[in-house]
Amino acid sequence: MLRMSEGRTAWSASKWREWFSEGETVPYFQPILSVEKDSIFGYEALARFIDKEGAVHSLGPFFLADIPHSLSTAEREEFKKLKLEIDRTIRRKAVETISKARNLDPKAKLFLNISPSFMQDYLSSKTDEEPYTLQIAKSSGLDPKRIVIEIVEEHFSGEIDQLKPLINLYKRSGFLVAIDDLGSKSSNLDRIGALHPDIIKVDLGLIRSSVASRNFQEILFTLSRLAESLGCSLLFEGIETETELYNALTYGARFLQGFYFAEPTADLVDISGLSIRFSQLHELFFNYKKYQLLRQIKKEKELEDRLDSSGIEVQSSSDGLVAIKLRNSYLLEKSVFRMYVTNHEGRQLSPNYSSISSSGMLEDDSFIGRNWSWRPYFLEQFYKNAKDSSGDWIASNPYYDLESHLLLVTYSKRMPEGNVLFVDVRMWDFP
What we know:
Blueprint: E1 2-4, H1 13-20, E2 24-34, E3 39-50, E4 56-58, H2 60-64, H3 73-100, E5 109-114, H4 116-125, H5 132-140, E6 147-151, H6 164-172, E7 176-182, H7 187-195, E8 199-202, H8 204-210, H9 214-230, E9 233-236, H10 242-250, E10 253-256, H11 278-309, E11 312-316, E12 322-326, E13 336-342, E14 352-357, E15 360-364, H12 376-387, E16 394-395, E17 399-400, E18 407-414, E19 420-426
Parallel strand pairs: 1-4, 3-5, 5-6, 6-7, 7-8, 8-9, 9-10
Antiparallel strand pairs: 2-3, 2-10, 3-4, 11-12, 13-14, 13-19, 14-15, 16-18, 17-18, 18-19
């Protein structure tokens, strides 16, 4: 059974060293799966300690715990030295295990967690020695192209740009670079821009939150687009349920990791030892998403039919302003939040019409004259209309309205005189 060593985080370095002397520090390996190849992409090496009674302890709390401020300067330096020693032991043993493994995909990667603080210390030392990971890769005969340097999430007092020389050296040597636990702390966003990683690991907390929160779904969608635009691959880690798995696949996961597939073990699990068959997974996922999309298409078509049947009339006046009339307003009273008309440059020409019911609509003249050309949905309808002038309704992506804080989809249609009719629809009208 895996035990956590959190209760020991207040120990001094000498106490930790005494404890480590009575057992063995070893790497455990958790497989990382490739979605596109239906195979194991690599293994993350995780630090474990086996005590004299044979109990296995995670060393995550040891590495992530702040060094107690009550310690003297010398004791704090000794603690840092011990952390580096244990870290290097794990890295060395992991590299040796992978390099000696037989019946393993010759391209399987090894993910090694490295602290930004250790990197900063290496650069500050101004040593002529090569980085430790490069040294052990060469001595073991393991191709650096098979190693992923995973920059772990931790409090880092320095500027992330300071690590660029070392990261660039790793990349020139053939290593891949990953940013760990994106989303757990905002500092990771600046690491993406500064270090341009090959792989972005998305934190489990974001995945779990996305199941119930539209906000987090939008964040994950944005991360997916960000990774695509930067040429980075997304690795979703910590997957434990089928729902989390589907969310990861929905938001562009290229690689997957978590207890849903396999727990970390001392041995290198091969693909035949995993409990999931990818061919079935892909088929189930596609059918699940196809059902969602077809349901959405049906709902959108029903809404467009109601918009067309509602008898919307846009009436222009001699002063350049316009009014909206509805012949069958009851068709829109449960769906439409507001309506208005702009000219082709985004200047609003009509009042806002809201609270639509069979008895009429509320008019708000205060929005006349405002310009909405800066809104993404306006440029989106301009672009789509320029490509297809058929005059059909154009729907925006869902977004939160700045004033009402409602989740909306904006439908738009270009009028014969060049003006544009906008209809904001509440998102609950969609699946």
